[in-house]
Structure formats: C-alpha cells, structure tokens
Design a protein that fits this description.
Blueprint: H1 12-31, H2 38-45, H3 64-75, H4 84-105, E1 109-110, E2 113-114, H5 116-120, H6 122-141, H7 146-173, H8 180-205, H9 210-237, H10 240-243, H11 249-252, H12 258-266, H13 269-282, H14 296-308, H15 311-330, H16 337-352
Antiparallel strand pairs: 1-2
Helix pairs in contact: 1-3, 1-4, 2-6, 3-4, 3-8, 3-16, 4-6, 4-7, 4-8, 7-8, 8-9, 9-15, 9-16, 12-13, 12-14, 12-15, 13-14, 15-16
Length: 355
C-alpha cells in the first residue's frame, strides 16, 4: 500500500504526483475500453499521445480532484487505494466537462496544445465526453458495494450541478447584468460541486457516515469557490505560458466572471465606463463584428478598467475568504494529522497558483 505523506514533508507536488502515479494506470485501462477512434481521441486529450498518435509526455493537468479523493479515503482511516475508483471517476467526469466546455466556449488551446474539437472535430469531442461520463459511473458501480452506490449517487448529483453551472455560465454571457451572488452560485455549481464530491468520495468508499461526508464536502465546495476565483483572475491577467490559453481569454468570450461582475457592482466612473462598453458589445452583430477579433490594446484597456473599478482586488479577497471557510470546515472532521496537513497545503496551493 502507498503510505501517507508525513506532515513534515506534506507538499502539493508530492500529493499531486502520488495521485497521478496511482490513477494513471487505472485511467488508461478505462480509456482502453472505448471503441476506436474514441480511445485514441481520449488518449490525445489526456496528453498520452500527440496528434500523430505517437507517445507523448504532454501536461495532463494538475490532477487536484484525484488527489483529493485519495486523501479523503485516508481521512476515513482507510488506505489511499480504497479511494482509487473514486479518484478515477471524478477525473473522468472532470475531463468530460472540459471536452464539452472547450467546444462550447470555442477554446482552441488547453494545456499548451490544440483542443480535441480543434484536432478531431466537434463530433468526437461530444462523443468522447459522453463516454468518459459513462465510464465514471461504470467504474464505481462495478465495485458492487453499498458504499459504491452511495458514492455513485454523490457523483451523479455533482455532475448534474456541474452541468447546471455550465448552463448558467453560457446564459450569463448573453445577459447585460449578473449580480455577484448569481456568479458565486454559478461557480459553486460549475467548480465547487465536483471538488466537493472529490473530497468526499474516497471517504464514502471507506465507509464514513453521511454527516462526515457532508462536512468534507463543505471543505471541497469552498475550496472550489476559491479555486474558481483564482481561475477567474488568471482568465484575465494570467500568463499564457502558465495557463496554456490565449491572453485575456475570459474577456474574449464575454464571460461574466467574478472580477467583471464585482467591477460592475462597485459603482464609480470606471465601473460605469465598463458597463457602457459591455452594453455596446451586447448590441453588436457577432457575425460582422466579433469581440474576439479586437486588438490586444482593447482587451488590455478593459482589464485596466476592471482593475480600476476594484474587480481584481475584490476577487483576490474572495479567494482568501473561501479558502478560510474551507479550512474551518476541516475542524469538524476527526482525521489523522498528516491528512489534515495535506488538505490544508492543497487549499493553500489553490490560492497561490499561477496556472
């Protein structure tokens, strides 16, 4: 069995590396179940092969969710391997959402290379995403235990909420105004729900009661809100070399992310100028005047207005608030000190990451 990382060496790199080491072989075996060409399309998405089908060592993502699932099994006093089916399942659902989101958002780059829909076409992006969702449920239900059934129900609920969040996100792009609470609710669904499930699913497979699982989910939910707040900052001001996306990516897509919504709610001259610009965007004919084709200076000017109105600072503070709430929830769960230290370290990583 893989030992827990001692408190004195609890660091996020080791946690994420352990998660990838344990999860990747099982994940590869799951992808091998898919019919061609979906198996190779999925392998490309995960970074295992390049466009030509040759083995690749591309970035497969941070694997935060699998790491949480393994830690949650240890929080229940079980070995990390007990949480392995849950870790694979949440990673499959997460990537199901990425495949569909990239297509819906028109994102051409993820993890520093072309997205699946760009390389293999929209049909394959949809089909492979659907297949990953089906695999996630299949892997859990194959365990055939009562606890596996409980874990599958939690994953199904989290997935439905994730889809709710994506639907809200798309709808908000077409609205002139979105308030801060609506934005937080959307991001709680889109990001918080699956992270919450990730940090409970291993514990559920380890046999914890629902009250303990719910408390762990509170940690994960607020961790997700902190994660998304930082993601929103990176979506405007992030370094493309770190994020793997185009500069000003969220502004190009007219996303009503937290910095934008907070800036619009702040009032004052900069907020009013930003509102006027966004209202003008909403009246444009997208077929003849696409905002995505604006020059870099225009996006830089909009980012400066958001910052001047206070949207950047408010979002940074919100990430710290959600981080503190997540840590507070851990006080209500009896768990080994080493596991608690790792969960705290992972939460700290979320609010300081650059990509």
């Amino acid at each position: 069995m893989t030992p827990a990382i001692p408190v004195e060496t609890a660091n996020v790199s080791a946690m994420l590396a352990r998660g990838r080491t344990l999860v990747t072989p099982v994940l590869r075996a799951a992808i091998d179940r898919l019919a061609p060409p979906m198996n190779t399309v999925a392998a490309y998405h995960f970074g295992w092969i390049d466009v030509e089908g040759n083995p690749s060592a591309s970035d497969g993502g941070k694997a935060v969710r699998p790491a949480l699932a393994l830690l949650s099994a240890e929080a229940a006093g079980a070995a990390p391997e007990v949480g392995l089916p849950g870790a694979v399942a949440v990673e499959l659902v997460h990537n199901f959402s990425l495949l569909h989101d990239d297509l819906m958002d028109g994102d051409e780059q993820r993890r520093h290379r072309d997205t699946v829909w760009k390389v293999h076409g929209p049909d394959q992006a949809v089909l492979v995403g659907d297949a990953l969702f089906a695999l996630a449920n299949e892997i859990l239900l194959e365990l055939g235990t009562v606890d596996a059934g409980r874990a599958t129900r939690r994953l199904a609920t989290a997935t439905r909420r994730l889809i709710d969040g994506q639907a809200q996100d798309i709808a908000y792009e077409q609205r002139g105004r979105v308030n801060v609470q609506e934005c937080l609710d959307m991001e709680g669904n889109k990001t918080g729900a699956l992270l919450a499930c990730s940090v409970s699913i291993g514990a559920v497979l380890g046999g914890v009661d629902d009250r303990t699982a719910d408390t762990l989910e509170t940690y994960g939910y607020h961790l997700g809100l902190a994660f998304q707040a930082v993601d929103d900052l990176l979506g405007i001001w992030g370094d493309p070399l770190a994020t793997g996306k185009r500069p000003w990516s969220d502004l190009r897509q007219r996303k009503k992310s937290l910095p934008v919504v907070a800036a619009l709610a702040a009032g004052g001259p900069a907020s009013e100028r930003l509102a006027h610009i966004l209202a003008a965007d909403a009246n444009r004919d997208e077929k003849t005047d696409d905002i995505a084709d604006f020059d870099e200076e225009e996006f830089a000017s909009r980012a400066a207005l958001i910052e001047e109105a206070g949207g950047r600072e408010w979002t940074s503070q919100e990430a710290r608030r959600q981080h503190a709430t997540a840590i507070e929830a851990l006080h209500d769960v009896d768990m080994p000190a080493a596991v608690r230290a790792q969960l705290v370290a992972l939460a700290d990583f979320v609010v300081v990451r650059e990509g």
